[in-house]
Amino acid sequence: MSWYCGNFPENDIVISTRIRLARNIAGLPFPSKMNEEQRAELCAKVKKALAESNDSIAQSLKYIDMKDVPVEERYAMVERHIISPDFIADTHTRAILISPDECICVMVGEEDHIRIQVLSGGLQPEKAYETAHALDRLLGEQLPFAFDERLGYLTECPTNLGTGMRVSVMLHLPLTESRHHIGALADSVSKVGFTVRGMYGENSKAAASLYQISNQITLGLSEEKLLENVKALAMQLVERERNERKANDTVALQDRCLRAFGVLSQARLVSSEEMMKLLSRIKLGQSMGYLPETIETVRLLVEGQPNMIARKCGPVSPQERDIHRATLLREALATR
Amino acid sequence: MLCENCGKRNATTHIRLVVNGTVREQNLCHECARAAGYEHPSADPLDNLLSSLFGESASLSRETACPQCNTTFSQISATGKVGCPECYHTFYDRLAPYIQRVHGSTHHVGSQPTKATSTPTEKVTIESLRHKLQEMIAAENYEEAARLRDEIRAMEGGTAQ
Question: Which of A167, A279, B48, B87 has a CA-to-CA distance to A314 between 20 and 30 Å?
């Protein structure tokens, strides 16, 4: 099951958890210093290491050379949070190994030789780490990782040294945001070594009130401690948002959420910005008990992204895309 | 140090010219260096910020290159990216203060790879660090001594757990 379909722990507020482990192979330069030949060799090494493993997860991963992926699909992969925008920005030889549900993705030749990424719905850092760790062990048995007793796993950017682990949690914080608490939040999370940034949107105002917290420090803290810290921090934010929601259970809020539902169940043209704004209100309305929980707001949010629409309907004009998006949303909301 | 050309401003750029085996060195201020065509390649203010985080004027540092990938410290300082795993060994002393500032530590605790790998920097023991600490105190390098003291404490804490 994909990370954006289904019910997961704390998913009234937490959308997803992502673990990323950065690993490099000893004896090879880091990717930005690699030539095409070395890059091809790297891809082959990682592919072989996983193919020769008897592990069921490793065997389920499909190897994809990025040059075989059409441009629109690459952007759609970014919209599904499978690969990073940086990964598709350059045109050098690089590859991914991906699981059928797209929750596991090993990027080869991004900023580091190998980036193991595991996504899970809701707040499940331990579960995601368990899978990432298993893959790390598998790859580490076959490939000599660059490691140093003092600095841990060696990475192209010193900001990823140590565990090479980045834990990110995506949260839906509409009321924390409307009470103008995001600035204070950013200050307080930075004191404990985390950052907060808006997802999808630019600057401090996030589209759909989605925010991502992730650890900045990767050296000097064990993986267990990092997981513990991210979970504790995310739960604090969850509790704060829940309290705000309880304190603001008013007719005005109910009206705003139900109007969003009304518009999306009838509209014939919906832009991507409007969709995000209104789905955010529907999601809030679900957690307040105004709207049924069966509406898959997160799935719609992902599938309504521009390149996801293009992937399904082929190359269409922006207006046709808005029509397709409106249809997707209307059909999903019609039976509710 | 004043600029050897104008004698007015502080010298910020160290130039080392090797012509047919003859070494000529010059210390110039920013303006004179620019006039002589030695502008720092990075004009991006963010890169300058990065360099200041590395705590060292890239242009003043003597250029040692990594034996494996040929990357110099000023390249690392300008891009924030290290060339290869061996660079961490080559430039450890200069990278350590930056790493300390970013992570608040220079001592890894956490998982280790299953397979034996090359270890670019020497195997670190508490004993070897204590030895180095004594050397730093003798050399009156108290900043480095304090860093080593913290590293030893962190390792002792890690061992005690």
Answer: A279
pLDDT at position B118 over 50: no
Phi-psi region of B21 (alpha: psi -120 to 50; beta: other; left: phi over 0): left
Identify the CA nearest to B49 among candidates B22, B26, B80, B75: B80
Contact B81 A147 (CB under 8 A): no
pLDDT at A44 over 90: yes
CA distance to partner chain B, nearest, from residue A148 (Å)? 5
Higher pLDDT, B60 or A62: A62
Residues B121, A149: C-beta atoms closer than 8 Å: yes
Strand blocks (E) in chain B: 13-19, 22-28
- Residue A148 CA to residue A13 CA, distance in Å, equals 39
How far A104 CA sits from the closest chain B CA (Å)? Answer: 20
pLDDT in tens, A277-327: 999 999 999 999 999 999 999 999 999 999 899 888 888 899 999 999 999
Question: For A235-250, what is each residue's pLDDT tens digit?
Answer: 999 999 999 999 999 9
- Which two tokens mark B61? 């540092």
Report the amino acid identity of residue B9.
R
Longest dimension (CA), chain A: 64
Report CB contact under 8 Å: B117, A145. yes
- Give the β-pairing of A147-148 and A152-153: antiparallel
CB proximity A246 to B under 8 Å: no
Residues shown for chain B: 161
Round to whole Å and give the CA distance between B133 and B131. 5
Residue A215, chain B, CB below 8 Å: the answer is no
* A/B interface, count of CB pairs below 8 Å: 134
CA distances from A324 to A266, A315, B33 (A): 13, 12, 60
Looking at CA atoms only, how far is residue A78 from chain B in angstroms? 24
CB within 8 Å: A220 and B114: no
pTM above 0.90, yes or no: no
State yes or no: pLDDT of B149 exceeds 70: yes
Stretch (H or E) spanning A309: helix A306-313
Helix (H, G, I), strand (E, B) or coil at A165: strand
Q: State the pLDDT at residue B120.
A: 47
Chain A contacts of B127, Cβ < 8 Å?
none
Residue A164 · residue A153 · CB < 8 Å: yes
